[in-house]
Amino acid sequence: MFDGRQVVARHPRLTRRYTYHDFLDHYLEILLVKPGAFAGASALAQARAEGGFTKVHEAFWAAAKQKAGDREGTRMRIEVLLLLRQLPAEALVKAMETCLRIGSVSTDLVAIEARKAMEGTDDEDAELLTDDRAADDAGGESPGKEAVGARVISLHARRLPPDPRTTLPDMSKYDRLLNLVATRETSQNQKGQGA
Length: 195
Known about the structure:
By secondary structure, this protein is mostly helical. It has one domain (2-143). It has eight helices and two strands; from the N terminus they run ββαααααααα. α3 (55-68) crosses α4, α3 (55-68) crosses α5 (89-102) and α5 (89-102) packs across α6. The longest helix is centred in the last third of the chain and has 23 residues, at 172-194. Mean pLDDT is 77; it is low at 140-151.
């Protein structure tokens, strides 16, 4: 279907009566609200039969369900499928493979890795990670290379250090401010009722 010269929809031609063809993409918003219906959706069965829902998709879904539970894991899986509207399928599959390899099921990380796969920066990151590990082992700069400003590494390459604080910060001053605001609002309401 076209709107002027722009393609707005594509559907396969159905030659027999009473046949139908579901696109999983058309149901994602509804399934996001009701993720329990995702596993039994006929659109999902059709996507599996046509090869659009691959073994990588299945593995990512299983990992997401294992980490976040059935409902939230399925919702994460659907959010990744929604990324297909903006990113090519090949890049998304590579991104899911990368995320599975590092043990993450973050939708945001899948989007970042997919964009990196589109730009071809995965190889550069792997090289930088190798250089960083060699520099860490050598206790300084990587051998044979000069430092050239800041270097960008993959987000999953470095983990944040643990929080050094042993106790939570004192919030008593903040609580006093909240009490002050609540007292003012109460006194204003009482003045309005007395007039």
